[in-house]
Design brief:
Layout (H helix, E strand, L loop, with lengths): L11 E2 L4 E6 L20 H13 L3 E7 L55 E5 L22 H7 L4 E7 L4 H11 L3 E10 L7 H11 L3 E3 L4 E2 L4
Parallel strand pairs: 1-8, 2-3, 2-5, 3-4, 5-6, 6-7
Helix pairs in contact: 3-4
Bound molecules: pyrazine-2-carboxylic acid and zinc ion.
Length: 228
C-alpha cells in the first residue's frame, strides 16, 4: 500500500546477485509495542512468503535489528522535559525523539514471533552506539560509521537489493537511499512496509529523496521467479 502516489515497476524477474533485506521486524515496532507502527504486523505473512521465494532461488536474505542500549540518546526519556516524538536535532539524533524501544536483549527487540527468522542468513544490528542513532542498515546517522552491511553484501556478490520491513519513513527509507548511494540497484517494496508517520510529511519526502537517487518502487506481487 503506497501511501504516496509514485510510479511502480510492472514486474521484476529475480536473478543471481539479488538479496532481500528485511528491516527491523521487531516486537517494539508492532501494534502494542513501544514504538508501534500501525499495521506493522499485517505484512508478516507476505514477508515470510517472499523469504521462501528468495530461499528457493538461493538468494541472500539479510535482517537488520534495531539494538539500542537502555540509555540511548534517541530516547526522549534521556532528555529532561522532552516527550516521545518531540522534534529534536543533535548530531546523529533526530529529527524527533523516540519512546524507549528495541533495548538490547529485551523482548521488544526480538523479531516478531510470526516472522520466520530462520530465513535470515545474517542479522546486522544497528543503533548500539549510545550517542548515534542508525536508521539506515548501511550507515549510522553520523553518516560515516559503517554497520558492515555493505561489506557483507559485496562479499556475497549482491548487486540488487529488495527492501521491506519497518518503518517505511525511517529505516526502510534510509536503507534504500543508502543502498542506492552505494551503487546497488534498489527496489523499495511499497506493500511490504508501513510508516511511523512522524513528522507527517516524512514519507512523502522520503519518496522524493529515494526517487532522486534512482530507487525503484515495486509491489511484491510483481516479483517474478526466473522461468526455467
Ligand atoms: C526506526 C525509529 C527509531 C525504524 C528505528 O526501524 O524505522 N525508527 N528506530
Ligand atoms: Zn531505534
Amino acid at each position: 500500500m503506497a501511501a504516496v502516489n509514485v510510479e511502480h515497476l510492472d514486474s521484476v524477474e529475480l536473478q543471481k546477485g539479488d538479496a532481500l533485506l528485511v528491516v527491523d521486524m521487531q516486537n517494539d515496532f508492532m501494534p502494542g509495542g513501544a514504538l508501534a507502527v500501525e499495521g506493522g504486523d499485517t505484512i508478516i505473512d507476505a514477508v515470510n512468503a517472499l523469504m521462501a521465494l528468495f530461499e528457493q532461488h538461493n538468494l541472500a536474505i539479510v535482517f537488520t535489528q534495531d539494538w539500542h542500549p537502555a540509555d540511548h540518546d534517541s530516547f526522549a526519556s534521556r532528555h529532561p522535559g522532552k516527550h516521545p516524538f518531540d522534534p529534536f536535532e543533535a548530531s546523529g539524533i533526530g529529527p524527533v525523539l523516540w519512546p524507549d524501544h528495541c533495548v538490547q536483549a529485551t523482548a521488544g527487540a526480538e523479531f516478531h514471533p510470526g516472522l520466520q527468522a530462520r530465513f535470515a542468513e545474517t542479522v546486522i544490528r544497528k543503533g548500539y552506539h549510545r550517542k548515534i542513532d542508525s536508521y539506515s542498515g548501511f550507515l549510522e546517522n553520523d553518516r560515516v560509521t559503517e554497520t558492515g552491511l555493505d561489506g557483507y553484501l559485496r562479499g556475497r556478490g549482491v548487486k540488487r537489493i529488495f527492501v521491506c520491513g519497518l518503518a517505511a519513513d525511517y529505516c526502510v527509507y534510509f536503507t534504500s537511499a543508502d543502498g542506492a548511494d552505494k551503487g546497488y540497484k534498489v527496489f523499495y517494496l511499497s506493500d511490504l512496509t508501513r510508516p511511523v508517520g512522524a513528522p507527517p510529511d516524512g514519507l512523502e519526502k522520503a519518496y522524493q529523496s529515494m526517487r532522486s537517487k534512482g530507487v525503484q518502487f515495486l509491489n511484491s506481487a510483481n516479483i517474478r521467479a526466473k522461468q526455467k
